[in-house]
Amino acid sequence: MGKDELKSPKVIQLNLQSTGRSHSSCCVCKKRDVKFITLTACARHNAFIDSEVLLLAGARCCSHHVNNDGNLCLDALQKLKDMNTGTETMFNKTGIASLIKEIRSIAKVNEKCRLDFDSSEGLSSSDYEILLGIGKEDFNDLVSHVKGIRDTKNRSVRTCIAILLVKLRTGMSNRLLSTIFNMEKTSIRRAIKAAREEMEVNFIPHYLGFQHISREKIIEEHTRPLAQELFGSTLYKPVILVIDGTYIYIQKSNNFQFQRKSYSMHKNRPLVKPMIIVSTSGYIVSVLGPYHANQKNNDANILIHNILTNMEDIKHWIKEDDVLIVDRGFRDAVDFLEDMGVKTEMPAFLKKGQKQHTVEEANSSRLVTKIRWVVESVNGRLKLWKYLQNVVPNTQIPYIGCYVRLVAALCNKYKVPISVGEHQDDQSLAAKMKFLATQRNNLQERVIREEGLHRNVKAWKKMDASKECVPNFPKLCEEELRNITVGVYQLKLAKSYTVEHLNDDGDYMITINDDISDILRVRIQSRHMTSKTYMLWIEYNHICIKSWYCQCKAGARVVGACAHISSVLWYLCFARHNSETVNGVQDWSQYLEDASQLPQLVDESDSDEMSPAEE
Going from the N-terminus, what domains does the chain have, and what CATH number goes with each? Predict the structure, then answer.
């Protein structure tokens, strides 16, 4: 193209509206004396496609008219559409050729694009939530943290970050991602690497790790009042953390030494173990590891290793009299923590030969599980990113820790707390639980003392589990049942127990004794073992439930009730009066074959019919 052609005069007039000639006013709202930004060529051409108004080179606008992706926002585009400049635009040959070339380039890119994360209108916020795990505005904020990635001819910065998040959220392979994003597999691999390294430097450290947040902020903003009331001090508020390991499954390895170290005898498969440390609201303080999975890397040894190696300066962050809530897998670390001055709260153990927890053990364990459940819920939230739930290829083992930390940081930044409670309500609940924890189970003592309650089978008459059985049993609402169970988990299991025991194969045996009018005895099937059933007793009157006792491990507690008792209460007090509530638990067995169901064989030798005689 010659020099004269480049400087050819603008003599071609087209019936196109244009704006942006002035550099002292906004091309959208015409305001003056404000801070402007100069629109890029890509933004100007996208605006022309959307509004049919041509923005001239050098056009400037107010900063609030521009999205995070550099294009004009919807309101600005609408103002351009409503604009009537009343002028036609002059071009030279070069300008027309350049405009056609740019529009063609945009058309080619849009033709190739199958998932468009660059356009503000391409995907809805719900689409972002499904594909990435975070909404559109949250993704815009995430991209604003990016400093070290640049646009390339194959993908933009936004697409680069989106590729990584789509992989984590859906668990798709790189081959499938290359099809979805219409890119070469090598380009997908490079984009994931760039996004991972960027997130590890400029995003994760701001929202995860002991050094990203102070003790005071954890205490004031991320500790549920119920936890402080149950395990805190009357003199000051300690940090209360809940700790547990999670599992990321990996492939078998041809390296036998590594295979032995990564094989979990507990799960009977190879895996690695990140250690999750959360506050009582579900805020993830840190993710340490991952670790091997053999016996030397049990939860207790991992926690001791965290502290002795001072990972993330944990020894200076955790102070004396802080409280760590753990499960029974940390039992070998309790003495180590107590030597540091750190208090531990852990569910009680059954001693050798002991079949059931004492009332005191069961009650204290319920106080612990009332707070500890949050870490299980956090682990479940992390596994919503399917990459962490699937079997991870061994080639990706070096990056598992980064991926878990990235998902944890995303949850901290963009997800709501898992466990919250109003201060006054939590105070009342804690006072109730602490009082109940000091009480004895009078019904248990009565069952043990009075032989007729436990052993005299003939005195107990079986009743049909229908609306008419036990007519004087109190009728309660779900809120009243939650006050008895001190939680919702047991009531969630109640429907499944009830459906099983009301079907033809179920064994929901409710019995009463004419000589003992205020006690109900029920035999209920264990949900874990077919051969195991439990006997339970409920003391009641026509107004309320007075006491309960079950033979299961936790059945003696009075701080709430076990799932077996809860299911009977839920059915007799509530569900049988609302028949539609029992429905909804699907039995998928009808779609499968059962090898235990065999046709009855007939012994033909006992048949009266004689075989025809041979002539």
Answer: 3-112 (no CATH), 125-202 (no CATH), 206-431 (3.30.420.10), 441-583 (no CATH)
